[in-house]
């Protein structure tokens, strides 16, 4: 027994010594205040807008920006809530309009002043909620490889054409935000009963319900799917990758759903002023241009898009999806979707 | 000590396959512990986030839920350190075959907790680990190709 306890004491002693040694060796230790930002991986990766914003902000803030990779909104909120005060998040980015209810659950958010910004008309109605500010937005639509789809669909019903059987890649609405958008769009356009009837007929057209956007879009990029559901601005990404890209965004007669991405400052923030300054950078013309070009989403500030490749995209009729079904309602719809899939 | 190490092969050589499994498990735990140590396991509330994630749908006694919610999540840093320390302890114990029996019981308790909190994705892994730890404790797996044989020869008792 004595051996056992001595052994445990030695192991824990060694571990604590190793941790202390590592902390002393940490070159990043400095006295500057730390701005802790939680954001999705796509924002933080080398090709996302995060690194540029961090570098730009650190040149003037006399602080250090620390990014934390958040996953989906629910996990993000749980992480932000469970952080101790000393490591509390100062700013959270990456909520879409469906996540805001989750974000509000059990968490307080500070009001953010953005009066001086010249917001685009598309996002103005969203500014009434001062605790969450949109920083980019996108139009969701179907994309197609023009060479592989000679007759481009113009309506949802056109997608039932037997020519597209097994040719469409979509996202699982339970795990993917565009997937959920597609389902809610369908329900809004056709009504719940008719929407699910449509899905039944639509099932043979779908090659895959990918767990996330990357999976379904990856299949499309590799020409394993001819049509995919994605952001209209993905066309710009496609052209940047390959100037001869034949990807086209399809305007549908029914109108298109929009996705907004929001940022918020938790009321438990430690460096709230810095967080507000960072929000200012994200919403500046320069910041918005970077967000647009690296996130492939539309800017929320007026005229930032002007003379950019994004400006050349076709105009999409959008539909009003500001009335968002609550969490319980969405869960009910998703349950129904799951049952339909099981029955296939 | 070296003589008794060689003796262990002569007298309990039939346990060599178990010793192989023990060393493999020790290596696995060392690898996992090093990943956590070099990653942000101690700096970020990974454990707390995982628990918070599965807690609402957890099929466990109320006292266990309250304990995890009020104590483990609130003091996640201390619990992360304890979990990591115990993983290192299991790793070293299994690799050198030292105090394997009591450490196997610790491993058993950790695996039961992970089984409850894993949220379904790693169920099979932790079930297997529970069986392995239980077997390690039962046979006294440190007696073959391990330091436990040295102490077992001199002190006897259930701890070796």
Could you explain how this protein is built, in words?
- Chain A has 344 residues and is α/β, with parallel strands linked by helices.
- Helix content of chain A is 40%, strand content 19%.
- Chain A has two domains: 30-137 and 259-312, D-Maltodextrin-Binding Protein, domain 2 (3-Layer(aba) Sandwich), CATH 3.40.190.10; 138-258 and 316-343, Periplasmic binding protein-like II (D-Maltodextrin-Binding Protein, domain 2), CATH 3.40.190.10.
- In chain A, strands 1, 2, 3, 4, 5, 6, 7, 8, 9, 10 and 11 form an eleven-stranded mixed β-sheet that branches.
- The longest helix of chain A has 24 residues, at 2-25.
- Chain B is mainly α and 160 residues long.
- Chain B has one domain.
- In chain B, 73% of the residues lie in helices and 0% in strands.
- Chain B contains eight helices and no strands.
- Chain B has helices at residues 2-11, 16-38, 46-54, 62-72, 76-96, 100-117, 123-139, 148-155.
- In chain B, 38% of the residues are buried.
- At the A-B interface, helix 1 and helix 4 of A face helix 3 and helix 5 of B.
CATH superfamily of the largest domain in chain A: Periplasmic binding protein-like II
Measured as a percent range, the helix fraction of chain A is 25-40%
CATH class of the largest domain in chain A: Alpha Beta
N-to-C terminal Cα separation of chain B, in Å? 15 Å
First-to-last CA distance of chain A: 60 Å
Number of strands of chain B: 0
Q: What is the count of helical runs of chain A?
A: 12
* Element string of chain A (H = helix, E = strand): HEHHEHEHEEEHHEHEHEEHHEH
- pLDDT under 50 segments of chain B (min length 5)? none
Quantity of strands of chain A, as a count? 11
Largest sheet of chain A: 11 strands, mixed
Oligomer state of the chains in this structure: heterodimer
Task: Give the number of domains of chain A.
Answer: 2
CATH architecture of the largest domain in chain A: 3-Layer(aba) Sandwich
Helix content of chain B: over 70%
General form of chain A: globular
């Amino acid at each position: 027994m004595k051996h056992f306890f001595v052994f445990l004491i030695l192991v824990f002693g060694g571990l604590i010594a190793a941790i202390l040694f590592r902390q002393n060796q940490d070159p990043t230790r400095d006295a500057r205040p730390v701005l802790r930002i939680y954001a999705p991986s796509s924002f933080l990766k080398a090709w996302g807008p995060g690194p540029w914003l961090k570098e730009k902000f650190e040149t003037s803030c006399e602080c250090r920006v620390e990014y934390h990779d958040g996953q989906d909104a629910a996990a993000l909120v749980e992480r932000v809530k469970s952080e101790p005060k000393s490591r509390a998040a100062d700013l959270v980015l990456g909520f879409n309009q469906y996540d805001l209810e989750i974000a509000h659950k059990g968490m307080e958010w500070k009001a953010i002043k953005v009066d001086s910004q010249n917001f685009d008309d598309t996002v103005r109605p969203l500014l009434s909620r001062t605790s969450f500010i949109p920083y980019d937005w996108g139009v969701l639509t179907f994309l197609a490889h023009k060479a592989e789809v000679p007759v481009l669909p113009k309506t949802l019903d056109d997608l039932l054409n037997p020519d597209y059987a097994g040719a469409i890649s979509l996202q699982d609405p339970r795990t993917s935000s565009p997937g959920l958008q597609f389902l809610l769009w369908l329900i809004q356009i056709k009504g719940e009963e008719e929407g699910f009837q449509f899905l039944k007929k639509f099932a043979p057209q779908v090659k895959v319900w990918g767990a996330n956007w990357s999976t379904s879009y990856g299949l499309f990029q590799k020409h394993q799917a001819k049509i995919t559901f994605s952001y209209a601005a993905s066309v710009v990404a496609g052209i940047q990758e390959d100037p001869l890209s034949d990807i086209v965004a399809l305007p549908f007669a029914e109108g298109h759903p929009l996705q907004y991405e929001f940022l918020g400052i938790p009321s438990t923030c430690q460096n709230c002023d810095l967080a507000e300054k960072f929000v200012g950078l994200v919403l500046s013309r320069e910041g918005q241009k970077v967000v647009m070009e690296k996130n492939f989403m539309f800017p929320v500030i007026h005229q930032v898009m002007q003379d950019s490749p994004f400006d050349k995209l076709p105009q999409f009729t959008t539909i009003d999806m500001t009335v968002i079904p609550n969490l319980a309602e969405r869960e009910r719809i998703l349950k129904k979707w799951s049952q339909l899939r099981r029955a296939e | 000590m070296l003589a008794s190490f060689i003796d262990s092969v002569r007298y309990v050589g039939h346990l060599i396959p178990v010793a192989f499994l023990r060393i493999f498990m020790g290596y696995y735990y060392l690898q996992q512990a090093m990943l956590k140590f070099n990653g942000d396991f101690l700096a970020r509330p990974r454990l707390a986030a995982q628990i918070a994630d599965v807690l609402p749908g957890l099929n466990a006694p109320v006292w266990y839920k309250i304990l995890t919610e009020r104590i483990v999540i609130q003091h996640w840093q201390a619990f992360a350190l304890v979990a990591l320390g115990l993983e290192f302890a299991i790793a070293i114990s299994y690799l050198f075959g030292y105090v394997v029996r009591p450490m196997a019981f610790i491993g058993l308790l950790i695996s039961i907790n992970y089984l409850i909190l894993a949220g379904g994705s790693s169920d099979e892994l932790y079930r297997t680990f529970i069986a392995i730890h239980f077997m390690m404790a039962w046979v006294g797996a440190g007696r073959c190709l391990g330091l436990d044989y040295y102490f077992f020869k001199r002190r006897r008792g259930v701890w070796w």
